[in-house]
Design a protein that fits this description.
single chain, 140 residues, alpha+beta, Rossmann fold, four-stranded antiparallel sheet, 24% helix, elongated
């Protein structure tokens, strides 16, 4: 998958945050966006993640123009982020924190707890972590 942001503009009030920004990344590529405070890094990623919409410019996924109006739109296109400030909910367990906002459900609409626990355990296995996904975050 190729993701391209072309001629992106974004302002907040009178403050121009992004002007004519171009950015592209190929699927599977690891990218670090580096710059000074206030340079617009978070704003650009929030546009790609559907948190903000650009004032001008286009986003392409595999050559097709897309519009991410919500983070769910971005996620459906296969775009996900690890945010720089990760906040966990102490009153939830690990797997619940991992699936906040993107909970897995069964065909009847109920939460698929087993699948969420299983997928969290698979991630932990790949990372070499021996932690029960049902552990409360407050107990870590």
């Amino acid at each position: 998958m190729l993701v391209e942001l072309i001629d992106i503009h974004k302002s907040f009030g009178a403050n121009d945050v992004l002007i004519d920004v171009n950015f592209s990344i190929q699927g599977g590529e690891i990218c670090a966006l580096i710059g000074e405070n206030g340079a617009g890094k978070s704003t650009l990623m929030n546009i790609l993640g559907g948190v903000h919409q650009p004032d001008q410019g286009k986003i392409y996924v595999d050559g097709k123009v897309v519009q991410f109006l919500t983070p769910a739109d971005s996620l459906k296109a296969g775009i996900a982020f690890i945010h720089q400030e990760l906040n966990l909910v102490n009153d939830l367990n690990i797997y619940e924190n991992m699936f906040i906002g993107r909970e897995l459900t069964k065909s009847n609409g109920l939460l698929d707890t087993h699948a969420m626990i299983s997928q969290t355990a698979e991630v932990f296995d790949r990372l070499g972590l021996d932690i029960d996904p049902r552990t409360m975050v407050s107990d870590l």
